[in-house]
Amino acid sequence: MYVSKMAGIGMTSQRARNRLVEKIRSMGITNEKILEVMRVTPRHYFLEEALASRAYDNTALPIGYGQTISQPYIVASMTQILCESGPMGRVLEIGSGCGYQTAVLAAFSEKVFAVERIQALVKRLRANLYELKVPNVKVKHSDGFNGWSEHAPFDAILVAAAPVGIPEKLLEQLAVGGRLVLPVGTGRSQELRLIKKSGTGFKEHVMDEVSFVPLLDGIE
Fold first, then answer.
1. pTM of this prediction?
2. Residue among 123, 127, 121, 81 at smallest CA distance from 105
3. Distances (CA, A) of 99 to 22, 69, 159, 186
4. Average pLDDT, whole number, for the chain?
């Protein structure tokens, strides 16, 4: 748990973070621990200086390379879905970008395994997590469709980009009782889905309508 180490960082933005927390609370985030983590996580650290003034707007923002930092409500929502549906021991995150969702997940997990396909973002991700003293994350530059089989099975998998269909390798890397939350679809036609693995198969639930950048194969 790293929240205490981050609590004093970026206090000049604390009022803005407080307003953001109340906004996402009004949108249906009820887990108080998630709200507190969002309150102390300095989102402006993950953005270029030119966009820092918009860090606590409840919107996705560009981070370069055609990628975005997710809307805070969506970060909180996906985290809440996973936290309230099972254990958070070993967590795989696909499409880690600059590390904002990663840092939030790390507060609830024993270990986060973060995969990002763009080398420049991997460097930024590692630097951000080091700067914020988030100790329980392992980062890999790799194709997200492949997951991270060496560390499977995972209790939870979060995908922060939208494939057209659900990647089979990610399903294979879920532990029994594990959950996968991801957007599925193209363009504006995307659904946030929760897939739960039991001893007899998978159950799928549609949670929300969302808009994410596409999940691409290969690495850059």
1. 0.93
2. 81
3. 23, 8, 13, 24
4. 93
Residues whose CB falls within 8 Å of the CB of residue 183, separated by 6 or more in sequence, listed in order = 159, 161, 162, 190, 191, 192, 193, 210, 211, 212
Give pLDDT tens digits for 17-52: 999 999 999 999 999 999 999 999 999 999 998 998
C-beta separation of 75 from 104 below 8 A: yes
**Number of other CB atoms surrounding residue 126 within 10 Å:** 17
The catalytic site residues sit at 70
pLDDT of residue 7 exceeding 80: no
In the three-class reduction of DSSP (H, G, I as helix; E, B as strand; rest coil), residue 100 is classed as helix
Q: Residue 156 region, left (φ>0) first, then alpha (ψ -120 to 50), else beta?
A: beta
Strands (E), 9-95: 61-64, 67-69, 90-94
Q: Are strands 67-69 and 61-64 parallel, antiparallel or unpaired?
A: antiparallel
Picking from 159, 191, 156, the residue whose alpha carbon sits closest to that of residue 176 is 156
